[in-house]
Amino acid sequence: MPKTIKILGTGCSKCQSMIKVVKDVVTQHHLDVTIEKVEDVIKIMEFNVLVTPALVIDDVITIKGRVPSKEEVLALLTP
């Protein structure tokens, strides 16, 4: 079953960097995931996140307020 990734952020440079890191990892490792970009502030607030970017995997907030490394994203996405 594919994982669902949501990247919460309003489009700042850190948010753009997180999107690139996540997409690179998914592409390089051929992972079966769905990536959704959430830019709506109201929807971001529903996750109770005050700092962006935030990485949500299967509705669990895993990282917030910083851009993760590719290795860190890969570790979160693989068993």
Automatic annotation (TrEMBL):
Pfam families: Thioredoxin_3. This is Thioredoxin family protein. InterPro entries: Thioredoxin-like_fold, Thioredoxin-like_sf, THIRX-like_proc. It comes from the Bacteria. Residues 4-77 form the Thioredoxin-like fold domain.
